[in-house]
Write a structure and sequence with these properties.
This protein has 14 helices and 21 strands. With about 475 residues, it is α/β, with parallel strands linked by helices. Strands 1, 2, 3, 4, 5, 18, 19, 20 and 21 form a nine-stranded mixed beta sheet that branches. The protein has a six-stranded parallel beta sheet with strand order 9-10-11-12-13-17, sandwiched between helices. Helix 2 links the parallel strand 6 and strand 7. Helix 4 crosses helix 5 and helix 6 crosses helix 7. The protein is globular. The termini are far apart.
Amino acid sequence: MRIAFKLVLALLLATPAFPQSATDDLVLVGGTIIDGTGRARVRGNVRIRAGEITDVGAFQPARGEATLNVAGLIVAPGFIDIHNHSADALQEKPDALSQITQGVTTVVLGPDGGGPIGIETFMLPFDEKPLAINVMTFVGHANVRVRVMGANYKRAATPEEITRMEELVEDAMREGAFGLSSALEYDPGSYSTIDEMVALAKIAARYGGVYMTHLRDEGDRVLDALAEAIEIGRQANVPVQISHLKLGSAAVWGKTAEALALIDKARAQGVNIAADVYPYNTVLSRLGPLIRLENVGGPANVLVIESPMHPEYKLKTLDQIATERAMMPLDLYNEMLKEDQTTVVTTSISEKDVTAFLSHAWVMISSDGGLEIAHPRSAGTFTRVLGKIVREDKTLTLEVAVRKLSGLPAARLGLKERGVLAKGAAADIVVFDPNLVRDASTFQEPAALSQGIKHVFINGTAVIKDGRPTEARPGRALR
């Protein structure tokens, strides 16, 4: 007994615990490793050294190495949000708390055509004052179009204007943009022709970039819009990423098989097309003519998030407000259309459609949220997948889910050193309890932080330690 006690004591003295400094080298010991490739989980250790993963598997810590016991926990690659709207908030919230507490280690900015044109100027502040999280960006078609056409954008661009747009996209790609994003459903992108989009997407393709698009229509004409995106990919020979794939109108609910078959056929013909989806059946938007009550299942499916002229409407449905005011819902709707800046959430997607899309092999997970986006998906997307979708609904296995959160978006973006647990990869790592992880955000508290994420490392530095933020800022501006 005395010999055994001395042996244990010697081991404890020889192997320091999790170091106090968030940047010290470390071995994660005894965890269940899910490496982001889709392969089956294994028990093993992960060594972090100088910001990289140097060993993964059945090795033993060396004498004197610092260790962290993660037995009973999942060790996975840090999650990558391929569609994130945090750009305007990161300078004020460099801790990115609602993101890292989901296990997100990299956010992709500039979606929906809103990305910057001057990439170096945009990224420089993140070099000078690093964040807790890695950032990367797309160049935005909307900004490029307005830069060239000004207020006179409500028409097709001339060949000369397209040439000037091409030059701006090329400059952005040279400065480190990961591709071109567009939102063809909204101004100014809605006036663009397919020829314009092909020309600009070709520039992105020339530099190894991706064409990421909010489709021209996500409702009644979504299949036509998918066909257009496929044709852009075919003509430009560019990888196409469909943003937040959805059937956003009651008229097309249940047509997931048709949408998936359209994309599968294109993939079989050599078009490199994939999609992302968020695990919610609600859409956050400004109330406007594009939101028709019959397309969202009626006034009970329209929830007011913010109404500057009527703060008493907050978190009430149009149906509830109409009852309180003794009005017909349609009359209330038409009245509110005349008022500016009313933000609503519509239950405009079928839950079955969401499940069908996120189960498909080439579909990855994104939030379409961010630090100041008042939707539960901003603070809960990734943990909702791990908790509700995996543990409760059993829609996905944990291995498949982790791949959709990490390895799949990394591969899509060409991030060879991230998204997987492998020797030589950047040490972006999330450690979570598979039995406890869950989202906590709601419409009443959209910024409520997730639970069950125990440790998060970004570039080898702990930003979450024992479930608490460390205030470290190891994030990098990726180009």
